[in-house]
Amino acid sequence: MKEATENQAILVAGFGTTHEDAYQKSVGALKNDVRAAYPNCAVFSCCTSGMVRCALQKRGKAVCSPEEALARIAAEGFARAAVLSTHLTAGFEFEKLQAALADASPRFTDIRLSRPLLDTSADREAVLRAVLAGNPLNEGEGLLMMGHGTARPSNGAYPACNALIAQKGLGPAFVATVEAEPGLPEALKFFREKGVSSLLLAPFLLVAGEHAHEDLAGEGESWLNEARAAGFAARARLKGLGEYGAVRALYLRHLEDAL
Q1: Single pTM value for the model
Q2: How far apart are CA 16 and CA 241, in angstroms?
Q3: CA dist 197 to 58, 64, 112, 156, 170, Å?
Q4: For the chain: N or C, fewer Cβ within 10 A?
Q5: How far apart are CA 172 and CA 151, in angstroms?
Q6: How far is residue 135's CA from residue 237's CA, in Å, rounded to a whole number?
Q7: CB atoms < 10 A from the CB of 98, how many?
């Protein structure tokens, strides 16, 4: 691991979640890995989602925005800051983080931002292999992964994942998104055409939080129930990407690249 420079702070930045147990299993584990890799650096964290921050504040838990975290880091006398983005793509939340860094840059002699998790083809393949290895399938079963999606051009990372699955022979597996394309209908069509009638649903999200508990496997209009209604035998496993050691190792490589 590349040694960080003197007077260096590391900020672990992500969307955030209201599910504390899932947070500790994923982001908490990643922060511990960062501390172990860079024992001489101070490690901070922040949440880019105002909605999540407000929800946590109502519970009495104060969580920093990127602006607040960077101001605190500067106030504590750190001249250099490296920001580890846990965002999967360069969507709206990543852009908010970039803007916060630009505003804070005059306070630092050096400030750097890591790439999103799914930035390159190699990154995407590493993440896909980690999820596939961590979710063994029953005979004849397919893996349906739920990503978030974004209206930004970086949403192309998700269809690129599916292209990699086909190219590398990693199927039957498919990545669909909650808020963009491809969606659940495209995923179910894919599995039908492959002759797959049984599915394991898993989050393609850093944290198995609200989307995983409600949209993926909730009791209402969830993907799990929609898949069953469409004739598939379906089960779900709620394990966020941050719970896979190989994914956390990839985040550390992105941090090392930034440093």
Answers
A1: 0.94
A2: 14
A3: 43, 45, 46, 27, 18
A4: N
A5: 27
A6: 8
A7: 15
254 is catalytic: no
Burial 120-147 (b: 16+ CB within 10 A, else e): eeebbbbbbbbbbebbeeeeebbbbbbb
- Joined together, the tokens standing for residue 196 give 């797959």
Q: Which domains does the chain have, with CATH numbers?
A: 8-117+243-258 (3.40.50.1400), 121-240 (3.40.50.1400)
The owner of tokens 């505003």 is 103
- Is residue 137 within 8 A of residue 235, CB to CB? The reply is no
Q: Which two tokens stand for residue 180?
A: 């963009």
Please report where in the chains the tokens 């969606």 appear, as a residue.
Answer: 183
pLDDT digits (tens, 9 = 90+) for 81-138: 999 999 999 999 999 999 999 999 999 999 999 999 999 999 999 999 999 999 999 9
**Residue 91 structure tokens:** 């969507």
* Strand locations in 41-182 (E): 42-47, 80-85, 110-113, 141-147, 173-177
Q: Do residues 13 and 83 make contact, with C-beta atoms less than 8 angstroms apart?
A: yes
Of the listed 148, 211, 213, 254, which one is catalytic? 148
